[in-house]
Amino acid sequence: MFSVILFLLLFLKPSFIFSQDLIPQYQTDLSYQQDLYNQSYDLFLQKKTVHQQYNSIATEKELIDAIKKTTQHRNSLLVAYLNLITAKLDIYKSQDSSPNTFKIQNVLNQQNIWLQNQPTKITSISNKSQLDQYNQQFSQSYKQIQQYINNALIQSQVNHQNLIISQIKNLLLKIKASPKFDSQAQNWIVEIESQLNDSTDFISQALLQVKTDNPESYTDYSDLYQETKPYLDSSKQNLFKVIENISGVIKKFI
Whole-model pTM above 0.85? Predict the structure, then answer.
């Protein structure tokens, strides 16, 4: 009988976090791979039920084959997702003055190559013992992959928000250069700049969670994206307020 722990480790369906700006071709591939994974997962459940009922050598072999197929599709799903978030980092990469984005992309590419080399190993599996050993090793690697994904999600949003802050600052410079600029406008600018500083502080707090040095040292999965999300959300809310304020008076100065 296959252990419950094995099935939980292997078939706990990935829960991915999406932003609104997905690159269409990678999103299409991701959806396709998700469908294939779901189909193979459903087949696995059927084979599992049959094996639990008959517990024969034949049903065990069919179950192992179903697990191998689902494992292949799970890995292909991860490859598609890593392709997506790696490419997405390129969109606002210019806003990162540090080497963080480049380092994160490099690590994601390394993990992608590792995943693409897994089919040969999976194909060679012929029994439960080999399957257990493979999944134990994979579960450790998956914890690291999750950490790399967290880093990418955080850095991507940070880069995007930094772009918005940069654009707002350029707009404020134009407003200051307007002949209509007066003391009332100066007070307004001070308030806006204070809000931008708050956003920058929140972003700095979020960046403290991004770890790009010695990625091999990650051994425990921690959902740092969820821990960082309140900082990113607070920064975003500040920026929404700034944009609201600017849109109300922009025509007066530009």
Answer: no
